[in-house]
Amino acid sequence: MGTRRVVVTGIGAVVPTGNTAEEAWKNIAAGKSGIDFITLFDRSTVENQIAGEVKNFDADALLGRKEARRTDRSTQMAVVASRQALEDSGLEITPDNMHDVGCIIGSGVGGIGSLIESVQTFLEKGHRSISPLAIPRILIDSSSGKVSMDLGLRGPNFNITTACATGNNCIGEATEIIKRGQAKVMLAGATEAAIVPITIAGFNNMKALTHRNDDPKGASRPFDADRDGFVPGEGAATLVLEDLDFALARGATIYGEVLGYGHTSDAYHPTAPMETGEGAALAMKQAMNDANLTPEDIDYINAHGTSTQLNDTAETRALKAALGEQAYNIPISSTKSMTGHLLGAAGTIEAIIGLMAIRDNFIPPTINLETPDPTCDLDYTPNVGVNKQVDVVMSNGFGFGGHNAVIILGRYAANGSS
What we know:
Elements: E1 6-14, H1 21-29, E2 36-37, E3 50-51, H2 59-63, H3 65-70, H4 73-89, E4 101-106, H5 112-125, H6 134-138, H7 142-151, E5 157-158, H8 166-179, E6 185-192, H9 197-205, E7 235-243, H10 244-249, E8 256-265, H11 278-291, E9 300-302, H12 309-323, E10 332-333, H13 336-339, H14 346-360, E11 362-363, E12 386-387, E13 392-399, E14 403-410
Parallel strand pairs: 4-5, 4-6, 9-10, 9-13
Antiparallel strand pairs: 1-7, 1-8, 2-3, 6-7, 8-14, 11-12, 13-14
């Protein structure tokens, strides 16, 4: 990346553990799970009946009934999280700055709920029954487009889709845009609303989901020997990224700085990670090189930690390959144990968690970690969070298709060192 420094000045979130970033963090820090039985559809139609749903999300009240009807749930949550983030940043969008402010809002599957609804309508009622708004509701880039329209952002605007690495790629690429001078401010977010029968059935049939239907809050257990799959989640989270000079000139409050970004491809398998963790390890090394940091500089790692047998073992190997013996000394946690796996939106909420860890000097826990796994032998902060000085956080995101994206966030310091 270039020489410009990029800082975070605003955060917003609508996720299973809370409908604001602060509420979400408070519950995560306390080890409170947002996972429960599925309510968004008749769960008796699928084998896996638990998920991390966003609770009490009233799109009609938040966006207006007309706008809510015109947009998919994924877009609705993206708009709300982005509004929160922009308000939190204190930045007012004006005709003088609107061309310098853009957004990248990513998603794994976009408006899949709207797609299924439109297909069912077509099959039952015929082609003339399809809404003229069907395509905008379905398109994966609709969230990014709608956020730009809602907030009046006329700078760079697009979406990224890299499965479960999406959120980190959105933050990394938005940072790149600012560093090369194409925008002064970028909203970097991601959203997912995929708690629908077809995705649940698809993940189940590839043996990716947990079957602990009788224990929703104990079902996601990253790095535990008895883990048996991930818990799907939904939600949206957005960060406001700014050129440091621009942020300082307007007196913005700074949560932290984006220090490094790395991304690689496994080129290995459609869904499984490389067993050696080689691609993930290289992405971590790239991010540290980009930040000009060593493993000894990392204070906390928010792991991808999905609670699947393959991922957690492969990520552990990747951490050792990237960090060497220092891997054993760095506190790690997977907050997916509480949020579930937000798929494309995982990286953005986990980046916010990393910033909160820096702000509060607190390592959030990995809950439900009860039985050690010999293949996962690092410090995963089991069950209870830990007070610790946190200046630098690494956040990992790995996705189907072999996507590996890693970002490093640091405490802001005027002299450029965290």
